[in-house]
Write a structure and sequence with these properties.
The structure holds two protein chains of two kinds. Chain A is mainly alpha-helical. Among the domains of chain A are: 75 residues, no CATH class; 70 residues, Arc Repressor Mutant, subunit A, CATH 1.10.10.580. In chain A, 52% of the residues lie in helices and 8% in strands. Chain A contains ten helices and five strands, in the order ββααααααααβααββ. Chain A has a three-stranded antiparallel sheet with strand order 3-5-4. A two-stranded antiparallel ribbon of chain A has the order 1-2. Chain B contains eight helices and six strands. In chain B, strands 1-3-2 form a three-stranded antiparallel sheet, sandwiched between helices. A three-stranded antiparallel sheet of chain B has the order 4-6-5. The chains are: A mainly alpha, B alpha+beta.
């Protein structure tokens, strides 16, 4: 075999490996030289066929298999790179950008920061920390100037409050005072003692306001959880009946 | 300039009244400020030269070294804070719970920002070898880092620096007190 692609002076372990594909017939390493120096179009070379033929070739090998395989990989990887560059032209400039040295350097830098992260973590474990004062204590809004107040507006606001103008949603303070739940409980207990059962609709119908209905409902819940009465409802949205649980009524 | 911070830690009670006048003014300014102030800002506020203010700041830093309050110095800005070793008491007083820990990814990212300063997202990704979006977002949300501007390069990427909260969080009074970064010998960035 003529000048081998492998190291000079050493007989190639791939010496007897020749390939036979569409555009080329001959020693394997010659294929690479033709592509690199003579402009043979690599896109027409089937790397699959080349690899298949190499595998077939190794089947007949008695020794030096590892050498042959590594020499083949050296050439084949070069072929794969050349072919991928030819097919994906944009890859070409990038893969020359970073050398192995750059990569090793990057790994060392990253290792340094990884060590540092561990040290910072220990620093946190030490429990040391500083705290700053929250903020300046000035009022956020300018104070109203003298004479800016409007007594009429203040009065109107107070009147709206007094008339129970629609309270904002979520406000529950007022009804609790107007219709104390404990009083409702006593009222319901008295009713049950006299009548044995009563419907919730009847109780609600006697209420003057929505707030009172709420107080009544809370009182019913209380009466039921304390075992003074049980509730029955035959169907969804049907009438709710409250019945005195006389037998097991606990002495309060 | 004519201000002498001096090698002695305790302020000299016989020091000229003028010196203390400026030092006290700077002290009051730091005390009421709700953010870190640069020497230039302080100089504007107290009507002295930045060099004089620097002297007063050195004096105050020395003075407070042994007190319950310290002067934090972060990249040329100054702020008063509680002494790092009193963290437990302060946390209790402020009603703060256990400190939340930072993930390994967040610590690495924070380390890179702290030791490199003014780094872009791409710089961090390059060192860590992985995408650092999520740790960056965490650190920004916790005010440990902030955007320090944009790099004059294609895409004008944002650059990040640490905040003085970072110092307070790690219980150090300046970046110099952080553990040394053992970088590989060659190609160390000069800074």
């Amino acid at each position: 075999m003529t000048a081998s692609w492998g190291r000079a002076g050493q007989p190639s372990a791939l010496g007897g490996f020749a390939i036979d594909i569409d555009d080329f017939e001959g020693p394997f390493d010659l294929l690479l030289r033709l592509i690199e120096t003579q402009g043979l179009d690599i896109t027409g070379v089937s790397l699959l066929a080349v690899t298949d033929q190499f595998i077939a070739y190794t089947a007949s090998m008695r020794d030096r298999f590892a050498e042959a395989a590594s020499e083949f990989l050296l050439v084949a990887s070069r072929l794969a790179l050349l072919k991928s560059r030819a097919l994906l032209p944009r890859l070409a400039p990038e893969d020359d950008g970073e050398t192995l040295d750059d990569l090793a350097e990057r790994l060392r830098v990253y290792a340094a920061f990884k060590t540092l992260a561990a040290q910072l973590d220990e620093q946190l474990d030490a429990g040391r920390a500083s705290y700053v004062r929250a903020a300046a204590v000035d009022l956020p809004d300018p104070e109203p100037a003298a004479g800016e107040g409007d007594l009429a507006k203040l009065l109107a606001a107070m009147q709206r409050l007094a008339q129970g103008a629609p309270a904002r949603e979520g406000s529950i303070a007022a009804p609790a005072r107007e219709y104390p739940v404990p009083a409702k409980i006593r009222q319901i207990e008295a009713l049950l003692a006299a009548r044995r059962s009563v419907s919730f609709e009847a109780l609600a119908a006697a209420c003057a306001s929505r707030a009172e209905v709420v107080a009544t409902f809370l009182a019913v819940l209380h009466v039921v959880t304390h075992g003074t009465a049980t509730v029955q409802q035959a169907e969804h949205f049907g009438p709710i009946t409250l019945t005195a649980a006389r037998a097991s009524a606990p002495a309060s | 300039m004519n201000q002498r911070a001096g090698p002695n830690a305790a302020p000299d009670p016989t020091a000229p009244v003028d010196d203390f006048g400026l030092t006290r003014t700077v002290e009051a300014s730091l005390f009421v400020a709700d953010r870190a102030l640069s020497a230039d800002e302080l100089a504007d506020a107290v009507g002295a030269s930045p060099a004089e203010v620097q002297g007063a700041l050195r004096l105050l830093t020395e003075h407070y070294r042994a007190r319950g309050v310290v002067v934090l110095e972060h990249r040329g800005t100054f702020r008063m804070a509680s002494a790092p070793d009193l963290a437990d008491t302060c946390r209790r007083l402020l009603g703060l719970g256990q400190r939340t820990r930072l993930s390994q990814a967040a610590l690495e990212t924070l380390g890179i920002v702290a030791y490199r300063q003014n780094v872009t997202r791409a710089d961090i990704d390059r060192i860590r070898g992985v995408d650092s979006d999520s740790p960056l977002a965490t650190l920004l949300a916790r005010n440990l880092i902030r955007e320090a501007g944009r790099l004059d390069a294609p895409g004008r990427p944002a650059i990040f620096e640490t905040t003085e909260t970072f110092l307070a969080y790690f219980g150090v009074t300046s970046l110099d007190e952080l553990p040394a970064l053992e970088l590989p010998a060659e190609r160390r960035t000069a800074e």
